[in-house]
Every structure is written in structure tokens, then in C-alpha cells.
């Protein structure tokens, strides 16, 4: 089973699970990527919330199937002409080709496009695995957690880490609008992942940080997670 992750800067990730290609929060107008979104052809596009720096390039993927809250999928249909979508909500799991996608809580705001005006419902994160999550722990399952834009919250420890058991997590570290390095490090420890990726940093002046601070903070928690700081457009293989 192939499970490959590619970071395109900010919160934009491609996740390939065997023959299924997923893209999360398409926003390519960021300094970490040189990728033209027209080069990508994902089967499914997952949207964590409706802020402009997470849906900025959805119009480039009109042929893909979108997954988000019903409020956001309706908004994208009305304003971006997205024809194929699935609305879901927190706690739900949908099967998308070779992947199982569970929508989980994120603590943030969710105004559509700009952060003002109509609400996109609850913001979210996504846990993506190659097997359907059950209460039975399975060491052969590979699982990736995209935390979305969030602050630290206890559900990371009590539900996401304990029940969904991610092997790797991408967590926002830029501070100001989300967790900073210290809280993100606690999240990594609570989730108990093997690999942690920082995201949502250096895109705008308020979220410019030194990622070495995140590395130090993770170590200070006592976590054994390997912090991997990817370059934009760089890939990482979780399993083959």
C-alpha cells in the first residue's frame, strides 16, 4: 500500500493512498511552492474551512470531487461552480476510493472566504487512513492527521490520538491565527505520533517563525516524534 504525502506550503497537502489522490486546502499563492495547480489532478479535494487561504484555488479543480461541511460544499457549488461534492460533519467517516477520511474537530473560526460574513459551519481537521477506523487497534493501518487551523484542544488527546491513532500529523505552528510552536508541540505529544510536520507558517508576516523552535518544543515535551520540516513541494512516504 502506497501512502505518500506532499506539502505545497501553508496548509496545502496532497495525500496519495494507493491509487487515490487527495488534495487538502488548495492555496498555491504562498512562498513555499513553485507548483502550478493546473499540474495536479486529484480525485478528491478536502476543505477544512472556508478562509481564503484555504480555498483560494478551488476553481482550479472543478473536475474533482469535494468534501467538506454541507455549508462549505453548498457555498462552493454556488460561488465556484463545483458540481461534485459530499457534505459531512464532525465525527463522520467517508470512504473515498482507497482512503477512509474522518472529519474531526478544529478550534478556529470559519467565515467563508475572508473570515467575515456567512459561516461555513464548524472548522475541521481530517484523519486519513488506508483502513476504516474501528475500536480495535491495527498496527498495519497507516494514518495521517491534518489538524487544519486550530488551537490546542483536549480532543487531540482523548479522541484523535486514542481512537484514531495517527502515525503522522501535520500541525499549524505559525502562531497568531493558530497554535504556535509550544502548543503545537503539546498537540504532537498528546496525539502520540511517530512523525510530525509543521505547517501554516511563513506565508504572511504575522506567522513567520523559526521552525527550530518547534523542534525544541517537541523535544521538551518528552515526545519521541520525529519532526520533519519539509521544503515546499517535497514529499514524504509513510508506507509502501
UniProtKB/TrEMBL annotation:
<dbReference type="InterPro" id="IPR036866">
    <property type="entry name" value="RibonucZ/Hydroxyglut_hydro"/>
</dbReference>
<dbReference type="InterPro" id="IPR022877">
    <property type="entry name" value="UPF0173"/>
</dbReference>
<dbReference type="Pfam" id="PF13483">
    <property type="entry name" value="Lactamase_B_3"/>
</dbReference>
<dbReference type="InterPro" id="IPR001279">
    <property type="entry name" value="Metallo-B-lactamas"/>
</dbReference>
<dbReference type="InterPro" id="IPR050114">
    <property type="entry name" value="UPF0173_UPF0282_UlaG_hydrolase"/>
</dbReference>
<protein>
    <recommendedName>
        <fullName>UPF0173 metal-dependent hydrolase ACFR9S_02630</fullName>
    </recommendedName>
</protein>
<feature type="domain" description="Metallo-beta-lactamase">
    <location>
        <begin position="9"/>
        <end position="200"/>
    </location>
</feature>
<keyword id="KW-0378">Hydrolase</keyword>
<dbReference type="GO" id="GO:0016787">
    <property type="term" value="F:hydrolase activity"/>
</dbReference>
<comment type="similarity">
    <text>Belongs to the UPF0173 family.</text>
</comment>
Amino acid at each position: 500500500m502506497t501512502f505518500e504525502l506532499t506539502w505545497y506550503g501553508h496548509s496545502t497537502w496532497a495525500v496519495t493512498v494507493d491509487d487515490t489522490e487527495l488534495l487538502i486546502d488548495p492555496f498555491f499563492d504562498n512562498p513555499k511552492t513553485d507548483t502550478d495547480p493546473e499540474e495536479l489532478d486529484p480525485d478528491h479535494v478536502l476543505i477544512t474551512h472556508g478562509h481564503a487561504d484555504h480555498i483560494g484555488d478551488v476553481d482550479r479543480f472543478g473536475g474533482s470531487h469535494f468534501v467538506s461541511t454541507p455549508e462549505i460544499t453548498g457555498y462552493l457549488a454556488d460561488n465556484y461552480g463545483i458540481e461534485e461534492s459530499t457534505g459531512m460533519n464532525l465525527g463522520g467517516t467517508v470512504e473515498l476510493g482507497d482512503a477512509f477520511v474522518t472529519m474531526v474537530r478544529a478550534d478556529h473560526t470559519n467565515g467563508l472566504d475572508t473570515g467575515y460574513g456567512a459561516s461555513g459551519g464548524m472548522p475541521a481537521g481530517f484523519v486519513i487512513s488506508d483502513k476504516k477506523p474501528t475500536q480495535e487497534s491495527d498496527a498495519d493501518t497507516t494514518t495521517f492527521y491534518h489538524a487544519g487551523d486550530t488551537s490546542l484542544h483536549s480532543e487531540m488527546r482523548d479522541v484523535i490520538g486514542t481512537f484514531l491513532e495517527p502515525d503522522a500529523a501535520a500541525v499549524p505552528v505559525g502562531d497568531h491565527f493558530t497554535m504556535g510552536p509550544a502548543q503545537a508541540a503539546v498537540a504532537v505529544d498528546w496525539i502520540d505520533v511517530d512523525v510530525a510536520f509543521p505547517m501554516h507558517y511563513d506565508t504572511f508576516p504575522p506567522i513567520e517563525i523559526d521552525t527550530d523552535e518547534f523542534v525544541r518544543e517537541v523535544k521538551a515535551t518528552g515526545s519521541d516524534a520525529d519532526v520533519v520540516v519539509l521544503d515546499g513541494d517535497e514529499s514524504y512516504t509513510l508506507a509502501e
